Amino acid sequence: MKINRKSMYGYLFISPWLVGFLIFVLWPLIQSFYFSLNNMRITPQGLQFRYVGFNNYLDVWLRDMFFIQELLQFVLHIIVRVPVIVVFALIIAMLLNQKVKFQGAFRTIFFLPVIVVSGPVIDQLISQGATTVPMVNQGVIIGVLTQVFPMWFAQVIGELFNQIITILWYSGVQILIFLAVLQKIDPYLYEAAKIDGASGWECFWKITLPTIKPIILINFVYTLVFLANSSQNTIINLIYMNMFSATRGYGFASAMAWMYAVIIALMLLIIFFVFREKEGPKRARKVKRV
Predict the structure, then answer these.
(1) Is 53 helix (H, G, I), strand (E, B) or coil?
(2) According to its record, how does it sit in the membrane (predicted)?
């Protein structure tokens, strides 16, 4: 009886989330998948559906001239930007974890862009050039990089330098996550390592990095999902444009959105396999014996 009552209280506690998930997540997913299997037209009588199967998915890859191009650009930007954001967040978190004056104020400063710079605000700042560094000449950087790297990769790196302020503004949440796990590391581990003659660099590689490795995975996943849903993402804007296009419509845009979601899921799967905890053979044997 007690178990049933506790279960009832548990379901009652999470019921708002369950209702919100069913109404605002699951139902729109089902609806968009149904849209992707149809050609939709808005008429005076309302929406008209014509079933076309998976033709919209084929058209995304075979007939749309922009999706593949924007997708390749997005993947290249993700490969460059996600590590930069995570590494920057880790460095700042380690600095904020030191015993410095006004520690709380510095944490607020680094997290403040997450609150202020969102939605239309970031669009206005970018349009006014507030997110660029005037001293950085993108053309000169690309010209230097083309002597070592291919043109397509040099352009990606050049855009990274040109938008470095915007990219670093996206690291506020990651800094707090890293800071939380760094504060959980037992300081006696560092003291014992230093007594044995370990340097600060060795402490980082032998103690800090193995401890925070699961959190690195979390921050990589969060950063990828955040950039994938950013208002500055050109693929998101392309989906919006096709949604209200007279020749494409909701069906084609829904198919494009689903293909984009599948690609993001594959990228998250790759990140998971790269940064997941790997059990050694000895540890696995011990677990089996127990």
Answers:
(1) coil
(2) Multi-pass membrane protein
